[in-house]
Amino acid sequence: MSATIIAKTEFQRIFTEDRPLLDVRAPIEFNKGAFPHAINQPLMTDEERIQVGTCYKQQGQQAAIELGHQLVANEIKHQRIEAWRQFQTTHPNGYFYCFRGGLRSQISQTWMQQAGFEIPYIEGGYKAMRQYLMEIIEQASKRPMLIVCGKTGSGKTEYIKTRNDAIDLEGIANHRGSSFGVNITPQPTQINFENRLAVNLLKHRVYGHGIQVLEDESFLIGRSAIPKCFYQAMQAAPTLYIEASLDERIERILQDYVISMTAQFIKAKGDKNGFEAFSKYILTSVDKIKKRLGGKLHQQIQNLMQEALKEQQSRNSVALHCAWIQLLLEKYYDPMYEYQMKKMR
Q1: DSSP letter, residue 329
Q2: CB burial string 122-139: b at 16+ within 10 A, e below
Q3: Catalytic one among 55, 98, 149, 229?
Q4: What is the CA radius of gyration of the chain?
Q5: pLDDT mean for each 10 residues of the chain (345 residues)
Q6: Residues pairing with 281 in the sheet
Q7: Beta-carbon neighbour count of residue 30 at 10 Å?
Q8: Pseudo-torsion of CA 270, 288, 337, 261, nearest 10°?
Q9: Helices of type H across 225-293
């Protein structure tokens, strides 16, 4: 195969080496799902792609190609080629891809060659690489696992981060796996979550780790769904239990969900707006589980939260937050954990 076309046999190397990737698909395709270390410099915009696609359906491939050349011509064409040249300059070891490694890749590479430079394109494009990554998840579902369990606040995530053979599902999902787990930055799309998970699993295997160590998670981490085959394997895997005292758990949750989150919101939005955003975050988080808490307990926790927020704002003290954290642990999270453990026995 030509050196300007990267064969499918190179997929493992592409992902384990974090090769820079240039995605020439339309932005709507890229935003739906792409790969880590990929940037989008499209051959056609979304609107141009729609016009060419309509022409293809009505008049055939040759007419669509001609329309594409008309739409992306002169200065527009020059700008697209220049963006690709800048990618090559910044990432001389990078590759590019379209959806299937077909016409768009061939046109893009021809234009590059005419401009005096070249970037290799990937055989099979996005579709083939996506299929490869989904197969990696299937294969990982059959490899040994160890699931780290424990009550809320016991330090499971901290333990996961100390092990180089662990897969941090919450980190990949950008969510901490509870009603309070939302981060300031958004979660990835479902496709991007799966792609990131697959790359992590591939590296785990290539680096020679024997056991995949994972934190016990629900099927949904925020809005990110763990692939079914992988989740089912997690449910059947052996477990490791972490224990911590109630005081230790309260302190950990206070640090993670109050002190750290306040600092993040203030850094992103400033003192006044940041504190308002933090206040909305914790009050909204408890509202999400109102039905499961019951009206009376929900109101009690909400009242304690509001008192704690007033104290935090007026005196810069977070001490009162411990009251609602303890109540939430004892009356909601701990009973739910015990129920789940009984089902597993």
Answers
A1: I
A2: bbbbbebbbebbeebbee
A3: 98
A4: 25
A5: 82 97 97 96 95 92 90 94 97 95 90 94 96 98 96 94 95 92 94 98 96 96 97 96 96 96 96 96 95 94 97 96 97 88 65
A6: none
A7: 18
A8: 0
A9: 228-236, 246-253, 260-269, 271-287, 290-293
- pTM comes to 0.92
Contact indicator for 216, 148 with CB cutoff of 8 Å: yes
Are the beta carbons of 84 and 119 closer than 8 angstroms?
Answer: yes
Rounded-to-integer distance, Cα 76 and Cα 66, Å: 16
Phi, psi of 96 (to 5 degrees): -130, 165
CB contact at 8 A, 289 and 301: no
Q: 3-class DSSP state for residue 243?
A: coil
Q: State whether residue 214 is helix, strand or coil.
A: strand
Q: State the Cα–Cα distance between residues 101 and 34, nearest whole angstrom.
A: 15
For the chain, the domains span 5-132, 141-241, 246-344
The answer to whether the Cα torsion of 218, 221, 222, 224 is positive or negative is negative
* Number of other CB atoms surrounding residue 314 within 10 Å: 8
Strands 145-149 and 239-241: parallel
The reply to whether 98 belongs to the active site is: yes
Phi, psi of 172 (to 5 degrees): -65, -35
C-alpha 15/C-alpha 196 separation (Å) is 10
Tell me how far apart the alpha carbons of residues 245 and 185 are, in angstroms, rounded to a whole number: 31
CB 273 within 8 A of CB 281: no
Report in angstroms the alpha-carbon separations of 141 from 131, 136, 236: 16, 9, 11
CATH architecture of the domain with range 5-132: 3-Layer(aba) Sandwich (3.40)
Q: Compute the distance between CA of residue 322 and CA of residue 257 in angstroms, rounded to an integer.
A: 11
